[in-house]
Task: structure prediction
Amino acid sequence: MKEKYPQSSTVFASNTSPFQSRHSVKLNFRNFFLGLAYILLFTFLVLSIFLWVSHPQKNKAPSILLDRASLEHLTEYIVHSDLSFPSQKNCTYYTCFDVYKCSHIHSGRIGVYVYPLVEYVDKDKVPLTKKITLEFHNMLKAVTNSVYFTPDPDEACLFIPTIDLLNQNRIHPKDVGKALASLPYWNEGRNHLIFNILPGSMPEYHPFLEVDIGYAMATSGGFSSLTYRSGFDVSIPVFSPLAADLKGQNTGDRRWLVISSQPNIHEDFREIISEMASEHPRFLVLNGCTSNPLDIKIRCRDKEMYRFPEILLNGTFCLMVRGVRLGQPTLMESLAAGCIPVIVSDSYVLPYVEVIDWKRAVLQLYQGDLSKVMDVLSCVSSDRISEMRRMGNWIYTRYFSSIERITLTTLRIVNDRVFPHAGRSYSDWNDAPPDRRPLTSNTFALPIGPPRSQGFTAVVLTYDRLESLFHVLERISTAPSLAKIVIVWNNQLKDPPSILSWPRLPKPLQIVRTKRNQLSNRFYPFPEIETEAILAMDDDIIMLTTDELEFGFEVWRQFPDRIVGFPSRTHVWDGRSHGWKYESEWTNNVSMVLTGAAFYHRVYNYYYSSAMPGDIKNWVDDHMNCEDIAMNFLVANLTGKAPIKVAPRKKFKCPECVNADLFSVDLSDMAAHMTERSECINRFARIYGRLPLRSVEFRADPVLFKDNLPDAFKKFKDIGSL
Result:
């Protein structure tokens, strides 16, 4: 063994030990594997760069959308399938839109993917669609330039095909249905938006796009209420390039009361319009000119020629009557000219009807009432004409003035459906900014600071109805959010009862004695009120439940700058008296919430007591009426916002009621009472110089309160009925 050991050591060196030999072998193997790893890594990097360069990125935006010249040289796409997916007529947002495709988006904005522009052809290379129009190209450009656009279909939750369907007369519906079905992300149309303006074709002119779009949403400028899928489709205006030619508006007197400039009106309607025009000299009826029928920029009345649409600048009202299609460019042209649209089309769905309050900008009549249009228009006040004209111009400028604005408004509506928490409110959609809103005296903001006490203070105005008062106190004292009760004792001839006579209540109670019997005492900023929220109560409101009070307070916390309450009223224009009329009928319109049972911010007590315009406060105290109307005027003038009615209860009953406005009782002076209330509205409007009241169709109800579910699922169970 000793003779063999030196022989094995001579492989390396005569003076090398066994440990050094093994260490050298390990180093050689390590260097070999490190070199191999470097070679593999270098090869991988070279291949990755080569593949990245040779294959364009998937999410690279197609530049053809921004290059108008390249539209003449589109890549052909062969449609091999003959299948299409029929349109689903009963679609809703909840049944046909896959909101989970938007679940990965946390920015509050939908991702919109626009398909690349290609030319769809059949197996024989015959085009299935026509070249896109300038309007549709501008739509696509508006989308790709918007904050919603994404070039990556995996990040999108809304898809827009690049097939021009704006005018159904330019397409073959069956071929287009096949082309849509061939789209790579079509998925039977789910989460797709189809842009259309003019639906239907000769001879029927159906009020819907006659293309198989599956579960896709559609826009249209001529939806009928029978075919419009509310909350799913989007009604848009019929675009008129002529409207853009109008620069400014006529702020002076207008020569014509009514202008009918719409060509191709149905013969039955034309006869009625011609007859009215012959009886009213301020009714101008225009038709196409026989001398030059193809010139859309002129209109004629007999031999008189007028430039169009400039002639609309001289009209107060513009008539829009149902034609072969429900939607007409007349609406857009009228709004641009400041000519108030009068729409006579029973089933027409106005543009963006789900967000725009059209009652503030247009007048609508039934087709059967066309012959009465002059009687109706003669009753419209000059103040309302000015307000409707201002509102119409603002709607046009903000939503209609270009194809780009129409496109972005449509996407905003869809975005608000997907992300309602980030959506616009009624005021955001319908109210002009403060610097352009004449109904608001200044920019108003509630004071910022912690209140001395949480919850709300119930301020109860009383005179001598003790039994009813005690019932009210027992009822409201059970509300968990009640902090204190303040009794405004308005009877100077009689002392309040002794403390032993009052009911035992779980909440503190304070009595404030007034020096004069005045209704305005209920709105005095008493130092006893330590909360921001005030619940104004009459001493005979004994029917409200604890749940109703708690829910009303919860609504007020979300809208602390508004009056939030239960009995609601509205105002209407009376054409006979040419004045405003106080209305207590059960309608959906609300412009006032009576302070016999309402929440409001305590800061309004300071405004009412020290900053009420004119002699309104003194007039209220002298006539012992209309203090609630005065408070509604004050809040509406400061904020420019409507009050909020809470819960469905509309009828109020109690055994000892004497307030003819709040309660359903048989009083002989009911008519005189209502007349005086109407006089209040007109008097206050004259003092303010305008009518600040805002009308709204809105009511706040608790979630699930009407659903047939166990009470354990409902936060507010005891909500009164009508």
